[in-house]
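input
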Amino acid sequence: RVARRPLGTTPWLHSRSPGLDKIQLCPLRIGCMSRTHGSCLSRRSLLKPWPGCSKESLAAMATLSLSLAHPQVRALWRQAGRPQRSRGSSSRRFRHAHAAGRVQASYRGLEPLYDDGYGTVKDLGHYYRAIGELVEHDGGPPRWLCPVDAGEPAVEDAPVMLYLPGIDGMGMGLCMHHKALGTIFELRCMHIPLRDRTPFEELVTMVEDVVRAEHSASPTKPIYILGNSFGGCIALAVAARNPGTDLVLVLVNPATSFERSRIKTLLSVFSPLSDRACIAAAALLNYNIHNEVNMALSMMKSGRHPFEALSRLTSNMSSSLKHSKMLDKLPKDTLKWKIKLIKQAASYANSHIQSVTAEVLLLTSCADRLLPSKSEANRLQKKLPKCRVFFFEKHGHSLLLEHGVHVSSIIKCSSLYRHSRRYHRVHDYIPPSATDMKEADKISRGTMLKTCPAMYSTMEDGAVVRGLAGLPEEGPVLLVGNHMLMGTEIIPLGAELMRRRKVVVRGVAHPLLFPRKARTRSQGHDLFDFLNLWGGVPMTYRCMYELLAAGEFVLLYPGGYREALHCKGEEHRLFWPDQAEFVRMAAQFDATIVPFGVVGEDDLVNLLWTFDDIRSVPFGRKLLRGYSNHLKLRDTQEVIFPGAVPKIPGRFYYRFGKPIPTRGRQDVLTDRRAATELYFDVKSEVEEIIAYLLEKREEDRYRSILPRLLHRAVRGSKTEVPAFNP
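output
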């Protein structure tokens, strides 16, 4: 019978095996599946043993974490009993929360602090074992593989991500990122066997066929291409030849700088020797012992036993030595072919780079000893109109195989993860994972140590209790409170709500904190990334409308940056506008308003100057006016960042007031006076909370940092420090 061409295979590739309807992958074969435009899978796949393969071997291969399958292998997961997701109407999904608690529809099926799999691959032995299996049973033309450990995407309507490997062509360079990327993408990896001699143009055509098929099936969805080194050249070539397709490129140390690289010089020196000697020398140059030592030290700093860190260090080094034995199985002239291939790829990509209009995220290793990746990143950023660069200071060329690199987190915090042509901060938002929370803890560790926030909430009967038990269980909820200097209370507030309640607080912030221009960043997340990861949105009525419609927890500061950048002597004062800007919108969606207050900035810093001081100096008004015109949201407010010096840290105190329901308050929507009364009731409640905290903190024996440090030294670093009795 005539075989149907599977999605993702080129006509040239499929024509090599006419009349067959099975794709051979190692000792497994998987039934072909067809897909028509705009339809789902039309045929279930069947897992069958290879002739001569025992049941024990089949079971071992099926349980291997890096087993290979066709890209549509997710049908196997459905056959194995995985629950099907309901495909309700989009409006219904975005208006109602999940029945199991606080899973908002905008999260597309993911819970906050989900397990992204980072840290499950402990060493490089996992990668080398997978490579060994591929080399042992490899053969045939290039093809697309799907790592089984990536699983089925947990995100509804997940976009496709195509991984294009480096010059090795194995397709296993993402082994440390399979689960993390497979959770939010439909992940497919290109595999080029070592014995294959497919020209560069046909490799580009192979990727183009998948891109065009996916674009025809879902014209409004983006297609992600993650290109590693040599794969980055293929990604640029595909983007240049398909300017009308919505592509997002993630390039990891692209090989466009091959002509200026050390590896080219190295290969010319070792060319008289055998292929094994050349490849072994390149592997030795690529091995990043500096990163391995740093990871071992970081494990000891995080509380791991020194022997555990030493064990992983020696395991990685021994695995690389074992990997060198596989060089005996390399076909002849492999190195010459690979060099020719990478030269063609670099030349083609550089000559067509001006045609690339896709969004590009460039991940660059500053310690790359094979390619001049750092200087190449600066060159590509000037050439590509939509390029963002993320530098890794202490990582080598094999960036994806080194610990401490979280590609999925970088994509999320760069606002590149989307399901349509434009990024939507509400509907495309993905909540932080467990790894994101750990990274945020590293950033906020100093702030949390200095401020040691003590949080209180108010129950329905008016009783004040320690903790967050008084907060509503379901949204929409509008948290309304006061800003402290420079908004220093936001990080502890968001972190505590996430840690204790698994609630993402969607902060409404100044548009200044959401720059449109692409930024160049070094390793580690900054304030802008923190806002993106924690769901911050610009202060617009449309954003608030969509957040409340989605049933979110929304954090609002009516005083805005006037409170955050206040003058001397204005600590803990409210600068709210006279208009009831948020009350009617909350009532429209039956949102619960929770007033809250926070104090403690006066125990943290001393102000040196503010915009009042600048206004009093010569030319100060003109300078202030010119700086503020493009920043302020209200005509009556001016903005300038104050100067401050730190002091011996005190403590932050939070208290959430009694929730104010708006369900059934139709008078707020129709009567301006009722809306104004409710607005000033909320404001007076916040003022009362601030006065309450200022009075009660005098009773706290642990207000100063020294008693807190002594308490944790005796009881443990993770022990909750006592505070005043409410």
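quick obs: The radius of gyration is 29 Å.
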